[in-house]
Specification:
This protein is mainly α. 81% of the residues lie in helices and 0% in strands.
Length: 372
């Protein structure tokens, strides 16, 4: 499951590694190329909660496999797309497959471990996004050597391999073990009455604006400061790996008794300060250090939110809809933030620090509300 999540997230990270190359081929500016990041999130931004409800009804394993299959087919289509509109359409389909995958997986992960180990397991699952983005960013040398289509085709084939492994290794639920699904209206009422999932969704959404404010533009920022494409992609991959390290650190801290809400608040505050400085400091080495620090500290937040989710709902059947709600807010931020930051960066890189600071303030306040 973790391999599927990582390779699904690699379909996000592959875009910053090839953004300038694709932009040049199709005549897109920085803002237009940023749509390749944000449109991946379109389906989840519109229907994350609905897909979460659907996943709860068809079962998490079926949703996981359907998401991996759809993501693989869409990734292949993106690598072969002859025009910009078809490429953008393929990105929307990739996002739909990824959403099914990430809605289904947390419940499967949580159910597969002992209660004492769930914080650590969810922290490990939380690494899927930064580790996958790092893998996608590491395709930059292949983009330089063979072109973006070859790099994207390789990542699509790896995602297909992950789909095959999950089909073989993820066990099916025993016959008759699942309780009948409650009516959708009743599930929605129970989800809204719980309130805590809404707070988690807010915290995760504002974190995502911060994370993609760094992950989507760090290569372009470094290239603007004189770095080579391969080196800029490698630096961004290091920042993503630091984020994965933050997720793992949060899992270990929670296993030792640390409060998830406190970790979320600390991660948001540290990420806001360091992340905004990425666009204010003109020295490439300092930008890399700040980006790594921002992503590493910020990694405390998603792991904490994933750990809180199963405990935020009164019924295990509501975990997938709760994850869908979180992914909807998460991807709404991913849809809106990159074009906004890209537009500001197109005027002056320093302007990109403003939305980073605002998102960091919102994430910190959301983390504080989870401590109640």
């Amino acid at each position: 499951m973790l391999a599927g999540g990582i390779l699904g997230a690699a379909q996000i990270g592959k875009v910053p590694a090839a953004m300038t190359t694709i932009g040049a081929e199709f005549g897109l500016g920085l803002t237009g190329a940023a749509l390749l990041v944000s449109l991946f999130a379109l389906m989840a931004a519109i229907g994350g909660l609905g897909i979460g409800l659907a996943a709860a009804r068809i079962g998490p394993r079926r949703a996981l496999l359907a998401g991996l299959a759809l993501g693989t087919l869409a990734a292949l289509a993106a690598a072969l797309a002859p025009t910009a509109p078809l490429l953008l359409l393929a990105r929307v389909a990739e996002g739909a497959g990824f959403l099914l995958l990430v809605v289904a997986a947390p419940g499967l992960v949580s159910a597969s471990v002992a209660p004492r180990d769930r914080g650590l397991a969810m922290g490990l699952w939380g690494t899927y996004m930064p580790a996958g983005i790092a893998l996608g960013l590491l395709s930059a040398p292949l983009v330089e050597a063979q072109g973006w289509r070859a790099a994207w085709m390789a990542l699509a084939l790896l995602l297909g391999l992950a789909a095959l492994l999950c089909w073989l290794l993820v066990p099916a639920a025993p016959a008759g073990s699942a309780a009948p699904a409650a009516p959708i209206a009743a599930q929605l009422r129970a989800l809204m009455a719980a309130r805590r999932p809404l707070r988690i969704a807010t915290a995760f959404a504002t974190y995502n604006a911060l994370y993609f404010g760094i992950a989507a533009f760090l290569p372009a920022r470094l290239e603007a400061l004189g770095a080579a494409t391969g080196g800029a992609g490698a630096a961004a991959a290091l920042a993503a790996l630091a984020n994965a390290g933050g997720n793992l650190a949060a899992g270990l801290l929670m296993r030792r008794g640390a409060a998830p809400a406190g970790l979320a608040m600390a991660g948001a505050l540290g990420m806001a300060v360091c992340g905004s400085a990425v666009y204010l400091v003109p020295l490439p080495a300092a930008v890399v250090v700040l980006a790594i620090a921002a992503c590493g500290i910020g990694g405390l937040l998603p792991a904490s939110c994933f750990a809180l989710l199963p405990r935020s709902v009164p019924d295990a059947a509501l975990v997938a809809p709760a994850v869908g709600l979180v992914m909807q807010g998460n991807n709404l931020a991913q849809l809106l933030a990159p074009p906004l930051i890209g537009a500001l960066a197109g005027q002056a890189w320093a302007l990109a620090a403003l939305p980073m600071l605002l998102a960091g303030l919102a994430a910190t306040l959301a983390g504080r509300s989870l401590r109640r």
